[in-house]
Amino acid sequence: MNFVEELKWRGMIHDMMPGTEEQLKKEMTTAYVGIDPTADSLHIGHLVSVMILRHFQRCGHKPIALIGGATGMIGDPSGKSAERNLLTEETLRHNQACIKAQLSKFLDFDSDAPNAAELVNNYDWMKGFSFLDFAREIGKHITVNYMMAKDSVKRRLNGEARDGLSFTEFTYQLLQGYDFLHLYETKNCKLQMGGSDQWGNITTGTELIRRKNGGDAFALTCPLITKADGGKFGKTESGNVWLDPRYTSPYKFYQFWLNVSDDDAAKYIKIFTFISREEIESLIAEHAAAPHLRLLQKRLAKEVTCMVHSEADYNAAVEASGILFGNAAAETLHKIDEDTLLAVFEGVPQFEVARATVEAGVKAVDLFAEHAAIFASKGEMRKLVQGGGVSVNKEKLTAFDKVITTDDLLNGKYLLVQRGKKNYYLINVK
């Protein structure tokens, strides 16, 4: 496989330094991507860079994932409006271990292949580097004029941020440039890849290598992913979409991809899956013929959920979706875990009822009309039950005075009440 050609048809190249493709054709090449370690999980904003590293390894080259322990402590002015918080070394190491575990799902770190992936942390070579040594050995090679010409610096100086640009942030491109130099000298790394907002920082590295070593180094960036409506990719009302199920459940993760627009699905399926060009073109044509079936979104959601989580998590997410949006049976409801249940019914009206009320046994009509205000009156509930319009835990309620006990609770604490076709209520028994 030709790495550059693969990325081009997938729409994953924004800028590429002349000579990059020739270098990749010439020999197995080592390249790196930098990852910010300020959290102990990656989010889907990181996923583009990770996919690029995976494509790189699949094409026979050697990928390095660089955890920016040092640079992550000071902040990058590219597209940011505030400096970052300082991390302790303990937090940094914890985050690094968690990120490596996530990356291991995408990259081969453990084989003895010559292109096995590596994980490095720039804190390891920066922590003992004194300011005087850095100024003498690195700072003299790059002029202030060169650094000031970078778009990311100019934007900040021209008032993008209220407080201007701190010296700490100004030095960021030099620190990132030194990372490239260090990896060039110690690991023969000749290519740095990243988002298009990193072009200035990456080319500072290639310039530093040229001026200090007289060597050739290369740069390749991918477009920043956007949504068709102009909104920010990867953000929801509740924040980032994380790869770690502790922060974003597999169900919510699956739903994110399932709910993207048609235009975005056609773009994302090229970027976030490894489906072949022929199959993707066929899927896009099928989708265009019957867009209401949402074939692109369903396939995209399946591929990404299986890749990031597992096939079992994907199947559970599909089943859980059927509870709210389809005709899932009661047994499906009883199988899903508490986190998924709460994710599925996030936003539906919820009521709290004392456990003692249910432990003693309570008539459904009393529970749903008095203890939880699902029905305005007992008479209203009786009428709807008689018409077959009330379900408890996805089973039709045939008697309004049926006694509800703790045996009926989902996960030992919840009751799902459905009124009519679309109105759901969740009772939390505490």
SSE layout and pairings?
Layout: H1 3-9, E1 15-16, H2 20-26, E2 30-35, H3 47-58, E3 62-67, H4 89-103, E4 118-121, H5 123-126, H6 131-137, H7 144-148, H8 151-160, H9 167-170, H10 172-187, E5 189-195, H11 199-213, E6 218-222, E7 235-236, E8 239-240, H12 250-258, H13 262-271, H14 277-289, H15 295-308, H16 311-325, H17 330-335, H18 338-344, E9 350-353, H19 355-359, E10 362-363, H20 364-371, H21 378-386, E11 390-392, E12 395-396, E13 403-404, E14 414-419, E15 423-429
Parallel strand pairs: 2-3, 2-5, 3-4, 5-6, 9-15
Antiparallel strand pairs: 1-6, 7-8, 10-13, 11-12, 11-14, 14-15
Quick summary of this structure?
This protein is of the alpha/beta class and 430 residues long. The chain is built from 21 helices and 15 strands.
Averaged pLDDT, please?
90
* Global morphology: elongated
Q: Regions with pLDDT < 50 over 5+ consecutive residues?
A: none
Cα distance spanning the termini: 58 Å
